[in-house]
Design brief:
three-stranded antiparallel β-sheet; elongated; 20 helices; Rossmann fold; 443 residues; Arc Repressor Mutant, subunit A; mainly alpha
Length: 443
Amino acid sequence: MSVTTPQPTAAPVVRFAPSPTGKMHIGSARTALFNWLYAKHTGGQFLLRIEDTDAERSTPENTTFIFEAMDWLGLTSDREPLIQSTQLENHKTIAHQLVTSGHAFTDSDGVIRFKVPEGPVHWADLVQGDITIESKQIEPFALLRSDGTPTYHLSVVCDDITQGVTHIIRGDDHINNTPKQILLYRALGAAVPQFGHLPLILSESGEKLSKRHGAASVQDLRDAGYLPQAIFNVLLRMGWGFAEQEIFTRDDAVSKFDISHVSKGAARFDTAKLNWFNAQYLKALPFAEVKPHLMPFLPEGTNTHPADLKKLELLWADLTTRAQTLPEVATAASYLLADPTTTYTPEHTQILIEAHHLLHELYDTFSAVTEWNGDILHEVIANQVQHHGGSFKTVGRPLRVALTAQLGGPDMSRIMGALGQNECLRRLKVALHHIHENGGHHH
């Protein structure tokens, strides 16, 4: 393998190198994001490598999880991903070269081990600052097992050289691996990359974040109804900040990201903060952008009715005022997409019975409306309120119950505008029928 020394002026090359052992953990996603931001900020390249050499745990399905999470977060690799298992012959060759060059030896068990030279190993960590490890703390670590399979240290250094990686940004659980890897670069006569170690992410209670803390993976958060924009933003703010700013667009994050401003201390995963971000993005983003993410949370068949989606779009600002997650938006929209007249409660029935004269009148009034839109409906309702003594509740409450089977919600004229005239009249007719069925009588 020829070892080329990158010119210091060359644009940085970073990589995200996950092992496909399951869904993508939040901590891995944050590492991927910070690598991507570093590359974009410096005009460099962001590469992906799949470290799939643990045959037991690395399944094709798990590899798909990684690509899926990366796509969803919009972290695209600038080159074809490198699949580590395709590189094993290269790794073996290098191990034998190191024996030949006197940097490694074969022990009595047939394991090729690295000969650790004397003297301290030092590096200027991009996040943690200066770190020095004494070489007597480093054991003659294995490079090639007796069955001929390479170890993590050998594989990672070989692949980083193959991919031309100049900056290695990873979790601080790797700090103890770094001196071994620096020694390997030197033994191979390769340029030693710069290293930056990101602090761990802790749960809200301050333990290492894991499955026990609920949504610990990107997929879990997606399935709980969070938008990729919100996850991007919450990951960005875990250990990095800019002035007092909270909300960052992607371009904004790229232009402001500075790895030297990443905090050394552990970051906390804060669900309340995530909910806040998600609520902000639900309010700020147009319906068209949220629609693909909302679809899985809507009742079956909704996507086949463009008319249903039109209703959501018309009421989008109302549906997102209080919602924090996509299921909450879907719940808020339930009376638009499903027939609420089948869900009247005893309390609803009582309200309808007490207003049955009024509802007959409203049915006739709304049947006569020739131009059906929010402004006109607003006027029609206001006139009815005047006509019935001036209290909005007298008219608004039974009308809301009849049409939505709810006691509160957005402005009725907007709801009726979104539902359309035919559907409003149909629901009023069902409500009147329900009144008769339940002992309310028509005078």
